[in-house]
Amino acid sequence: MKKTVLFSILAASAVALSTPAAAQHYGGYGQRYPYEGRQLQLEQRVQRLAYNGRISRQEYRVFQRQFEHFDRLQRQYRRGGIDRWEARELDAQLDRIQRQIRQERREDRYDRRW
Description:
It is a single chain. With 114 residues, this protein is mostly helical. It has one domain. 81% of the residues lie in helices and 0% in strands. The protein contains four helices and no strands. It has helices at residues 2-23, 35-51, 57-79, 84-113. α1 packs antiparallel against α2 (35-51), α2 runs parallel beside α4 (84-113) and α3 (57-79) runs antiparallel to α4. The longest helix has 30 residues, at 84-113. The radius of gyration is 16 Å and the shape is elongated. The model is unreliable at 19-31 (pLDDT under 50).
């Protein structure tokens, strides 16, 4: 019971903190930074998994650190303009995070069968 309440509070605070960032998102064809939308989508997916208790607090923190690392890297690349290599690196990093999320979801489904 305490775990459920803790995850609920954690998820609610994460959503509250990400709301201002979502309001600044540049969508559609005029999007300034193309990775923002994809990153936001992945972060929301992780928040839902944490809220539903499908990932542990530790796993949630690992994802949060990965998103923070991605933010730092993206800011660093933006300073001089993002070249092709840097764009591929950013894409690859989001791909890795997305694969990890899928893996967590698969493991959760496997655990529920038993």
